[in-house]
Each structure stands twice: as C-alpha cells, then as structure tokens.
Amino acid sequence: MATNPPEYNVTGIDYADRRHFAYPGPIIDFHAHVMVTRPGDPPTGPPLGTGPGASLQQAETMLDVGSDFGVIQTVTMCPVDDVEPLRERFGDRLVFNAMINKKTVDEPDDTALANLERYLALGPKVVKLWSAPRGRERGLFIDAPWRIEAVRRARSAGVRIVMVHVADPDAWFRTVYADAAKFGTKADQYVGLEKMMSLFPDLIWIGAHMAGDSEHPDHLHRLLEEYPQFHIDTSATKWQVREVSPRAEAHYRLMCRFPDRFLFGTDLVTRHHLTREHYVSRYWCQRTLWESTWTGPSPIADADFTPAEGGQTTPKLHGLGLPDDVLSLVYRGNAERLLSLPVV
Ligand SMILES: [Zn+2]
C-alpha cells in the first residue's frame, strides 16, 4: 500500500543536492519562530508556553540545519518566557522580536502594554504587529490606538524596527476572506500600514512575507518608492514559491531596483514533533528561489495551489538567480545594517 509522501518532500527530491547554490557567504534569517516546545503543544497555532516537558531540542535541530545552509543568526518571535532559556543556550545566534498582541478582543489595553514592557526589559531589537485579516475579530488592527501607544513605548525603549504582517495570499481573499464586510478587501489591509509608516517615519518598517503581496510586485514597488523606511522580508516559503515563481522576472527587477530593502526570512516555526527534513525543505526552497535559476515542481505540499487537470500537484519553483551583490545585501548586509542601527 502506498503511503502519502511527507509534506516536506512530496516529489522525493534529494535535498543534499545543492550544486545549484551560488552564494558562498553567511546568511541572517530575519523572520522565524524559534521557541521552547512541549509535548502537549497543538500541532499548529501558538505553543502552550508553560507546562511539563519544555525542550530546546527543536530549536537546536532547526538552528543546526540552518547553519548547514549558511545561517549564522536568526531573528525569532517567541513568547517572553522563552527569551532567557534561548539566550542562555544559543547566545548571539538569536535576536528577539517582541510580539505586540492580545489574546482576546476583551483583553484590556493595559494587559497588552504590560506584556510588552516585560519584553522590552529583555532588549528585543524588533517589535511585531501581527494584523492578518483573521485577527480583526481579536481587534488586532495595525493602527489600533493601543498599538500606536505600544510602538511609542518600544521606540522609547530603543527599538528601531517594526515588523508587520498585513494581508494574506490573494487565494485566501477568494475563499476564507470572501466576506469583505468582515475581513476587508486585500487593498483595505494596507491603509493602516501606510498610516503607521506616516506616524512613525523615523522607524524601520518591515512587511513580512513579501509584504503580503508577492502577487503584485507593482504594489510592492509603489510602497518601496513612497516609504523610504519600508523593507520587505522574503518569508513564508510555500507562498513565495507559489507566487514569486510565475512573476520571477518582475520580482528580479524589483529586488535589483531596491537591493537594500529586502531581507531573507524563512518563517520556520519550531514544533515539538517536527522532523529535521521539514526545516531542510524550507531553507532549501528559499535559497533555491532567490539565488539559483533552478526550475521544477516545488518539493513542498501546498494546499493553496490549484493543480491544472493532469498537471503537477505542487506549484512550479522558478529561481530568480539574483546577482551576487544583491544577494549579499538580501541575505546578510541589510540585516546587519538594521540590527546595528544606533539607538536615538
Ligand atoms: Zn512568522
């Protein structure tokens, strides 16, 4: 009986074959979730954060695989309680990104701000505003007054960088977000972002996951042109493989036009029961997409991809083959510049 292939390798590819990699130097992963894991954590969604069986094994595995792909430093979003154990084990290999969130819509602003203060005391370099459309029910609007206050406090504490998750794949706006009255249109998602960038022009803003719009490189071009402090991370591997590949030329031009505004990221998440190959698949696809001209079916299962009849079951990965000087900025130089900005 045939067993289903694992999500991290549906095409049976040999991930040890890296002859197409072109970039020799080290890489900084600006977007990941390296956390303490526990056996009782749910398979998706946030981990428990407390309870028995706390382990750094997955963090160890992920960073070990990362270093095999040249990753020397990772910016992680993790619960505040994870910062000290992670720092103790991994030192400077990790940099911290503090999430400014509420668990429920009723959570008082003061609770969210108190959580942030605890995090700020640990010296994060980045703060994160997660504002996907599905967060609207929890009041997670990017420009909610309590978040404006949170960003002010972060800035006073020396944080210079704000990462944002706005929007989601176009495909989701046709399905899970089809109710525009509830979730807003895709264009609506960017109104608050632009407002925040205008309110805080002295801060660096990073649009996670190709700023949520790899389907529209022309839109990304406009944002980069209008907001000189705006940057973009390459994370969310399945999404970028699926949507950057068919627009490889446009993205190549965009990244070469603004080489100092893109940051390598994976969006890898440590989870208690993951296998090493899961991490391998994301690093391999990210590097393949940006630095090589490799083309072929993506090795990763993608539920958001609609196969043509009788066609491939995964989207085509079409590598951009970015020039060396652009790669060295996207992979490392830009991250180093942002992480060493002086506190004002
Ligand atoms: Zn993420």
Fold and architecture overview:
This protein has 13 helices and eleven strands. With 344 residues, it is α/β, with parallel strands linked by helices. The chain has helices at 57-68, 83-90, 109-120, 145-156, 170-174, 180-183, 189-199, 208-211, 217-226, 237-244, 248-257, 276-291, 324-339; strands at residues 27-33, 71-77, 94-99, 126-131, 161-166, 204-207, 230-233, 262-263, 268-269, 295-297, 316-318. It is globular, with a radius of gyration of 19 Å. It has a nine-stranded parallel β-sheet, sandwiched between helices.
Per-chain topology:
Layout: E1 27-33, H1 57-68, E2 71-77, H2 83-90, E3 94-99, H3 109-120, E4 126-131, H4 145-156, E5 161-166, H5 170-174, H6 180-183, H7 189-199, E6 204-207, H8 208-211, H9 217-226, E7 230-233, H10 237-244, H11 248-257, E8 262-263, E9 268-269, H12 276-291, E10 295-297, E11 316-318, H13 324-339
Parallel strand pairs: 1-2, 1-9, 2-3, 3-4, 4-5, 5-6, 6-7, 7-8
Antiparallel strand pairs: 10-11
Helix pairs in contact: 1-12, 3-4, 10-12
Bound molecules: zinc ion.
Zinc ion is lined by residues 31, 33, 267.
* Rg, Å, rounded: 19 Å
Total beta-strand segments: 11
Which ligands are bound? Answer: zinc ion
Cα end-to-end separation: 63 Å
> What name does CATH use for the topology?
TIM Barrel
The number of distinct helices, counting runs of at least 4 residues, comes to 13
